[in-house]
Every structure is written in structure tokens, then in C-alpha cells.
């Protein structure tokens, strides 16, 4: 029997299908970077077109003008300036012009303000924006172990969108397994790299404080080192999210010959360790508390009613360093480089 014939027929059939549906199966040019010692297999390979798109999507916008730090303070000129009152009037005006372009270029000032009374807090997005400014300040002051001197601004996440495109929420669809016991996985996990891994791992690690422990130093996991297969899969789902978010692979943070050994890992692993804890704190201290302010719609809340939350992709947008490491703090350090007011209002029960 000629075994080559069935394979030839199958190949011809696939090519015929591809020609009909227009599938492009050309191998793309790739960019490969050696990130570890020779012989360890520590290479990062990227699709060249995707890498170019990533560079195009991570360009820092220009400041509308260079602000004058001298003159009257914003709290003396305007009413109800609770967070940025320490700025000069010109610095405040420059920041307001910038945040409008960063967050609401189409709706403009009206997105957060009653134009008849700019001091009013009646528009809920103004209250949210105030809290987000506090969050930016906290990141830049408290989390230098992750963001370094580069820092973040509202643009880092929003990129001209009122709601950042890269957020996550509780995902329990489909609620019923079509066959057998699904156990919160075995469907395409949109926040786990579209893998079949657990689909709500981010809730455990970027909202809850579950330990990431899957490696044991013994042949059989014992004691504190014991991790079940499900826990291991949960960790992998988080790692898939991080890999997709940064446009990187495992060896960006791990030595491929000893994944569990911190001493043999690249320094980026420490940066990522702080990043996980930073995202968790931001979700707990800032995002969850804002839930009562948001309308019950799919724009501001997830399908289960939980607030949209911060993940690695929210800032990174597919590249290892947000905005390729270019800092905006030179222009906005006075606004976002220090904690000017840390008061947390009581937003009441969910509406």
C-alpha cells in the first residue's frame, strides 16, 4: 500500500481550503534576540510585523506646551481642586489639556465636567479621574521597584481611550460545560493567552494573594512545596497572560535550565515580582472601591458586575517596557511624581 498517497491528498485538500478562505500561511520574517548565555536556549523571537506594530503603538505624545511652574497655585485660582492644587495655574492648565487628549479626545472636557460649572463633582467620571490621578502618583512614588524612574501617566494605560482597551474582569462563560466537568477551564481563556488553562487565574493573583508555587525541590512534592496540577495550571495561565502582555516569552524572566532558581534568573524576574504585587494593590486599593460609581453597563463593568481591573497588558500593551521605556515624567513630574493628596472618599454602596 502506498502510504504517501493519503498524505498527498490531505495536503492538497488543505491547500485548496486555504486558497478558498484566503488564509495566509507564509512564514513571516522574525526578529530574534539572545537574552541569556549561549547554549541555554534563551532567545526571544518575535514576528517582525507585530514588533513594528508594537513600536508604532507605543509612541509618546508631545506635550501641548511647556508649563511655567511659577505663579499662583491652581487651588487659589480654581474651585474644588483637591489633588493637583499644588501646581501652578499654567501647570494645571497644561495637565488638563494633556489628560483630555490622553483619555477623552472626542468628548473633550465634557467627559468629566459640567461645562456650566467646572467645579462641580456631579459627573461621576470626574470623581473617577481624581482617584486615578492619585493612583498614578502612588505608582510613581511607591512602586519604583517596578516602574523605576520612567514612571507612568494616564496615557500609559488609556492611549486616547476613555476606558483602557487592555483590562480584565471575571469570566465564567460558558456557565455550563458541554461535556463533563470543566472546572473553570478547558475553554479559550481570554485572559490566559486564549489557552485552555484556568480562565480566572488573574483573580487569584492580581486581585487575591495566592502564592505562585509550582516547583518542588524533591522528586515528589511534599509539605509546603506541594502544588496540585490545577494550581500549576493556574500559574501557567498567569504566565501566559504576562507573556502576551509584554510580547515576551518565558526566558525574559527565567533561565530555561532552572526555571525555579532565582539566583540563575535574569533581573527582570524581580521586576515582574514587584509588578504582580503592584497590580494587585492597585486593583484592591483603587479599582474595586470605585465600583459603586460606575453605571451598570458593559463599558465600565464586566458581565458579572465586577469592575474592570488592571493587568500587565493594561500598561505594557504588548511590549516589554511600556512606551519602550520613554519617560513622560519630565513634563508631568510635578503633577504625577509626588503624592499631593491621599484622602480616599467613601463612595457608598453599589448603585
What this model shows, in words?
By secondary structure, the protein is mainly alpha-helical. It has three domains: 31 residues, no CATH class; 127 residues, Photosynthetic Reaction Center, subunit C, domain 2 (Orthogonal Bundle); 150 residues, Photosynthetic Reaction Center, subunit C, domain 2, CATH 1.10.468.10. 37% of the residues lie in helices and 3% in strands. Strands 1-2 form a two-stranded antiparallel ribbon. Strand 1 and strand 2 form a beta hairpin. The longest helix has 20 residues. The protein is globular, with a radius of gyration of 24 Å. The termini are far apart.
Topology:
Layout (H helix, E strand, L loop, with lengths): L3 H18 L8 E5 L8 E5 H9 L17 H4 L11 H15 L20 H19 L1 H4 L6 H5 L42 H5 L23 H18 L21 H20 L24 H5 L12 H8 L15
Antiparallel strand pairs: 1-2
Structural class: mainly alpha
N/C terminus separation: 72 Å
Bulk shape: globular
Count of distinct structural domains: 3
CATH superfamily of the largest domain: Photosynthetic Reaction Center, subunit C, domain 2
Brief overview, please?
The chain has twelve helices and two strands. With 351 residues, it is an all-alpha fold.
Amino acid at each position: 500500500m502506498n502510504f504517501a498517497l493519503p498524505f498527498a491528498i490531505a495536503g492538497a485538500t488543505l491547500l485548496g481550503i486555504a486558497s478558498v478562505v484566503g488564509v495566509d500561511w507564509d512564514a513571516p520574517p522574525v526578529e530574534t534576540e539572545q537574552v541569556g548565555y549561549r547554549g541555554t536556549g534563551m532567545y526571544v523571537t518575535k514576528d517582525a510585523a507585530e514588533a513594528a506594530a508594537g513600536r508604532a503603538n507605543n509612541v509618546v505624545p508631545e506635550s501641548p506646551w511647556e508649563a511655567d511652574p511659577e505663579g499662583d497655585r491652581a487651588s487659589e485660582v480654581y474651585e474644588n481642586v483637591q489633588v493637583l492644587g499644588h501646581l501652578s495655574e499654567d501647570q494645571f492648565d497644561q495637565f488638563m489639556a494633556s489628560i483630555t487628549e490622553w483619555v477623552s479626545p472626542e468628548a473633550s472636557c465634557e467627559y468629566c465636567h459640567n461645562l456650566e460649572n467646572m467645579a462641580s463633582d456631579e459627573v461621576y467620571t470626574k470623581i473617577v479621574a481624581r482617584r486615578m490621578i492619585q493612583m498614578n502618583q502612588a505608582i510613581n512614588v511607591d512602586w519604583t521597584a517596578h516602574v523605576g524612574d520612567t514612571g507612568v501617566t494616564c496615557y500609559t494605560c488609556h492611549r486616547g481611550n476613555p476606558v483602557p482597551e487592555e483590562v480584565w474582569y471575571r469570566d465564567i462563560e460558558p456557565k455550563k460545560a458541554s461535556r463533563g466537568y470543566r472546572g473553570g477551564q478547558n475553554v479559550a481563556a481570554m485572559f490566559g493567552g486564549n489557552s485552555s488553562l484556568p480562565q480566572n487565574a488573574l483573580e487569584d493573583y492580581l486581585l487575591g494573594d495566592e502564592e505562585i508555587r509550582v516547583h518542588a525541590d524533591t522528586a515528589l512534592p511534599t509539605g509546603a512545596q506541594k502544588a496540585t496540577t490545577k494550581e500549576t495550571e493556574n500559574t501557567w495561565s498567569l504566565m501566559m497572560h504576562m507573556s502576551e502582555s509584554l510580547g515576551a516569552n518565558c526566558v525574559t524572566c527565567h533561565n530555561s535550565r532552572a526555571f525555579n532558581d532565582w539566583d540563575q534568573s535574569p533581573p527582570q524576574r524581580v521586576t515582574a515580582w514587584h509588578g504582580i504585587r503592584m497590580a494587585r494593590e492597585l486593583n484592591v486599593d483603587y479599582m474595586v472601591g470605585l465600583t459603586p460609581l460606575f453605571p451598570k453597563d458593559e463599558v465600565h463593568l464586566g458581565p458579572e458586575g465586577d469592575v474592570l481591573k488592571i493587568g500587565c497588558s493594561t500598561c505594557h500593551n504588548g511590549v516589554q517596557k511600556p512606551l519602550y521605556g520613554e519617560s513622560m515624567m519630565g513634563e508631568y513630574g510635578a503633577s504625577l511624581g509626588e503624592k499631593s493628596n491621599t484622602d480616599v472618599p467613601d463612595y457608598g454602596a453599589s448603585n
